[in-house]
Amino acid sequence: MKNLFSIGEVSKQQNISRQALIFYDKIGLFCPVYTDPDNGYRYYSANQLDYLDTICIMKKIGFSLEEIKAHMKSYTIDNSILALRKQLTAIERQIEELQMIKSRVEHRCSELEHAVSIRESSDVVTIETVKQQSLLVHEVRAPYSLEQVSIATKECFVRSFKEGLPIFFQSGAIVPYERIQQGRYTEASFVFLPIEKTGHIDGVMELPAGRCVCTYHTGDYRSIGSSYERILEYCRENNLNILSDSYEFAINDYLSTGNEEEYITKILFYV
Question: Could you tell me the end-to-end alpha-carbon distance of the chain, in angstroms, rounded to an integer?
Answer without folding.
Answer: 85
